[in-house]
Design a protein that fits this description.
Layout: H1 8-13, H2 20-25, E1 34-38, H3 44-48, E2 59-61, E3 79-82, E4 85-91, H4 96-109, E5 117-119, H5 132-137, H6 145-158, E6 163-168, E7 184-189, H7 201-213, E8 220-225, H8 239-251, E9 256-260, H9 270-282, H10 288-299, H11 304-321, H12 331-337, H13 341-355, H14 362-372, H15 374-383, H16 387-402, H17 415-432, E10 444-445, E11 475-477, E12 482-487, E13 495-501, E14 513-518, E15 521-526, E16 530-531, E17 534-543, E18 552-557, E19 565-572
Length: 573
């Protein structure tokens, strides 16, 4: 199933930077002229020692942000055209007006005295300008490469000291017909190169792509990934993965690497990751394990050894299992890949026990780590139906907001929403008591389930899911046109209740309708509506006739204009 975030990640990943001044400032021996680890900023003296570039400092235009050059009343000729219609969602890259706006923007804000880098990228959609001039440049449906290369060449000639980048992505996924100018380059996403500490077939394909591009430019920059973007708090091992990739990049002549992490948002263990990865960017062959041990005890005198041991354990687990590191997953997937649940709980408890002996500034940072990892512990307890443990963890996680940490994911997942929904779930459990006759009863899917959401047991586990986090207790389905589920007859059931969730950010919608039948007998049809006190949830109910003794069949019709639907819980009373 396609991740709900596949578009979002490319937008944030492109927010990176470089310039000659920065390269002079970070004048160290490295295979890479541009080095960025996009994690929270460190104190100035500490961060300055890492010799990294910065998104906020080193680019004039970055990412899909070309619109910054436009004045308030920009000419309509800058926008994409198809026949007589104009589409302001995309640019006409052969437009003289667009060229002149970029020219004015650079002259007014940066001049020509020093080298600045500019990303000249289409907006992040599939729209392509098909005006006569763009078609002459080589544009065709789905392919804007020709006009983008045309504009790139005009800008490199106009500003020979500056450097202009196109991207190898979406509508610009075509190699140029000839070499790019010396002051041009390409940004290549490593999305197609799985995050694995061991060799994969996709690695060979990506290396081949780099070799192809090396014939057209000496400035290949890679944007890469070092976080689970659905969960910034669960510790994730990245060192073996990063080192393997950097060795490949250095061998292939790559000149710049941007590692997209949590940006300015807090993520667990970001300080150690920023240090170690910055050293790998200078020397991809560095022996990171002894360096991590040294650095951990230096930065965290009391807790450093415990932290280092757990981080190393995770690295070993990922490498031994030879699995791909997920970029958009929940704790359940992490357990299968890199999170040893028992050892994590022991590590979390050790951190708590050590807190009483820790002094500032270590204490404040370790408190943040411990409380952030309460989210992981909460999920482990939810998976194991430990509601008492969940209640204890919620109170501690709530204090994280008072420390200025308010989100836990790339999409802005709110800790306050997470806690509120968890409390809603726990209250629902208290209110039901032992009334739910379907708790633990096995239901049977009658249509194919999505590959990553095929555990139907969560539909009768007695726990509501969290609408704001599609990994928590929800079964997603993209079944077309409908998902059908068989529910065995259970003595005493007079009423069936089915709950659903929606989340517009992930294109998760309520079903169009829900029907119930039994052995060909129609028992009703309901159109789901949001409940009054929680618009992200919907509950539908059916009465079961006393003479109905056969298997019940739910037919849940999906809204095909949205990506998926989320079935939460099936309960019987």
């Amino acid at each position: 199933m396609i991740s709900p975030h596949s578009v979002l990640i490319l937008l944030s990943a492109l927010l990176f930077c470089s310039c000659d001044d920065a390269e002079q400032h970070h004048n160290v021996s490295s295979p890479f002229e541009y080095r960025e680890v996009y994690l929270p900023e460190l104190p100035f003296d500490e961060g300055n020692e890492l010799h990294l570039n910065s998104v906020d400092r080193d680019w004039g235009i970055w990412g899909h942000n070309l619109s910054v050059v436009l004045p308030k009343n920009a000419s309509r000729t800058v926008y994409a055209k198809a026949g007589n219609s104009v589409n302001s969602d995309q640019f006409c890259f052969s437009s003289d007006a667009l060229f002149n706006y970029i020219k004015s923007y650079i002259n007014d804000n940066y001049g020509n005295d020093k080298t600045i880098r500019f990303a000249i990228l289409p907006n992040d959609n599939s729209v392509v300008c098909l005006c006569d001039h763009c078609v002459e440049c080589g544009n065709k449906a789905g392919d804007a490469s020709g006009a983008v290369y045309y504009l790139l060449e005009r800008l490199t000639q106009e500003f020979p000291k500056h450097i202009f980048f196109t991207s190898y992505y979406r509508t610009t996924s075509r190699l140029p017909l000839e070499k790019l100018p010396d002051n041009a380059g390409v940004l290549i996403s490593a999305m197609s190169y799985p995050l694995s500490p061991v060799h994969t077939a996709q690695e060979d394909k990506f290396e081949s792509l780099l070799n192809q591009w090396s014939k057209y430019t000496k400035r290949i920059y890679i944007w890469d990934y070092i976080n689970n973007f659905d969960d910034y708090f669960t510790p994730i091992p990245v060192f073996d993965v990063v080192q393997r990739r950097l060795k490949l990049y250095a061998k292939s002549g790559v000149k710049g690497v941007f590692f997209n992490g949590s940006g300015n948002d807090y993520s667990t263990l970001f300080r150690l990751k920023k240090h170690i990865i910055s050293e790998m960017l200078v020397d991809p062959d560095i022996k990171w394990r002894p360096r991590l041990k040294e650095l951990s005890t230096e930065l965290y005198p009391v807790t450093g050894e415990v932290i280092c041991n757990f981080m190393t354990l995770q690295e070993d687990m990922l490498t031994a299992r030879e699995k791909t590191l997920p970029m958009y997953e929940g704790v359940l997937k992490a357990m299968d890949t890199y999170l040893p649940a028992k050892e994590f709980e022991q590590f979390h408890e050790q951190m708590f026990n050590l807190l009483v002996t820790v002094k500032d500034p270590e204490r404040t940072e370790v408190q943040q780590m411990f409380r952030a990892m309460m989210l992981t512990s909460l999920e482990l307890k939810r998976i194991n139906s430990d509601t008492l443990g969940c209640r204890r963890m919620l109170d501690g996680l709530e204090r994280l907001v008072n420390m200025g940490i308010v989100t836990y994911s790339e999409s802005g997942g709110s800790i306050e929403d997470y806690i509120s929904e968890y409390r809603y779930m726990l209250k629902h459990i208290d209110d039901l008591g032992n009334k739910n006759l379907l708790k633990g009863v096995k239901v049977q899917p009658l249509t194919a389930l999505d590959e990553e959401y095929n555990d139907v047991s969560i539909l009768t586990d007695g726990h509501l899911g969290l609408p704001s986090n599609y990994h928590c207790g929800l079964m997603l389905s993209s079944a077309t046109p409908a998902l059908r589920i068989a529910i065995p007859h259970v003595k005493g059931i007079k009423r069936l209740r089915i709950s659903f969730s929606k989340n517009a950010i992930y294109h998760i919608a309520f079903p169009l309708s829900v029907s119930l039948s039994s052995e060909g007998r129609d028992l009703g049809k309901v159109v789901p509506k949001p409940i009054a006190n929680n618009l992200q949830r919907s509950v539908v109910e059916f009465n079961i006739p006393s003479d109905c003794k056969g298997t019940l069949v739910l037919t849940i019709v999906r809204n095909q204009e949205e990506r998926t639907m989320a079935i939460d819980e099936i309960e019987g009373f």
